[in-house]
Amino acid sequence: MRYQTVIGLEVHLQLSTKTKAFCSCAIDFGRPPNSGVCPVCLGLPGTLPVYNKEALNSAIKVALAFSCQIQEHTKFDRKNYFYPDLPKNYQISQFDLPLSRNGHLEIISEGELKRIGITRIHLEEDAGKLIHGSNSSLVDFNRTGVPLLEIVSEPDIFSPQEAFDYLTTLKNIIEYLDVSDCDMEKGSLRCDANISLRPEGSKELGVKTELKNMNSFKGVKDALTFEVIRQTELLESGQAISQETRLWDAGKGVTVAMRSKEGAKDYRYFPDPDLTVFVIEQEAVKRIKSGLPELPKEKMRRFIKEYGLSEYDAKILVNSRRDAEFAEECLRMYPGKDKKPVVNWLIGPLLSEANNRKLSLCGLKVDKQELINLVGFVEKQEISNLSAKLVLTQMIDTRKPAEEIIKENNMLQISDSTKLEAIILEVIRDNEKSVNSFKEGKTNALMFLVGQVMKRSAGKANPKVVGDLLKRRLTGA
Question: Which residue among 265, 302, 339, 471 is least enclosed by CB atoms within 10 Å?
């Protein structure tokens, strides 16, 4: 029997507000453990929560970006469970009246456009952080009460690759909104996955397994891939799938059973008596919607239309909001209608330098005008592509202008035919066999002769000019 994989994802997103969700504690990643807490976020008796308006506005912004319907009435509930990193023994979350419902996200996966439904985006607070040692576990409550969004997808994802593409697209959009740093290493973006298998053609969902402890999108993909294999083997051997929560062990490349999966009734949700139902005014929603930035898909379409870029090039350039802004300034500054030369440098050598240094394009802090100047030297064939890449590296390391580096290293190409003719005549005289091969129609021989000229000129000869001069000399044209 063949099985269909069905996946739903729950993304937890920390919002980049100055203070926590229900108190005035400042949010500051990396501060000493338990130094960013107060009676409210610790849940001490006699304290009352007050919701952070900035967090609400950011949440509405995210919901609108994913085409969700903003609910007119919303409320907070207490989600009850007992865990060391939850000081109140409940989490303030949303149950039956979430902030928003019925959104979607379009992704391109394996060359095809697909729409993934988003069930709901709701507000909640984060829990603390457990730090496990060899013989003990410690709790840091600094993260407790940080405003959190939970983005719940429909079970519309049918492969680990689709899950990966969904997450990367979702992260890209959220970064454009500037409401979170989306840093998985800091825990600002976390993901749980629900996966089940069902016989192909069946409409009924199988028994689901929840996966946790995945700290990268690749980890999500790898954990889901393992689960597809594990669950397939169980079903084919006639065994039942248990509804449970499993942890991903990246070191061993396996999932491990953690506990049986809880349902809504296990959490005993009830309305938080300290936080009344509140109304979201439509005028406020319209105001936030009008202030949304240009999102990646719209920016990509505009880049294609305004600058004549290919879809492939535009997609790479809009992958990050700040990188897209850097790229657009370069596109505007580059003279002429054809922007391909500067695009090739942005998505080629510059992106390669950024990846090698684990930085963004704008993080390299390359002067935009100097990048344009460097591309100009290449286009005018004054330096070779190889030399230009070395210049770029030095520009990043030293902050020197391109022209200064080129002059210091004597990198200007020789394009003067008079200077090159002498070297060409020497190469023709010393390589009679290759000359005869070329005259017999073996075009590869010409490349050998060009290489010999480049070698004798210490790499400074313009290879295109050399090729043209050699052809003319050998054919008499």
Answer: 265
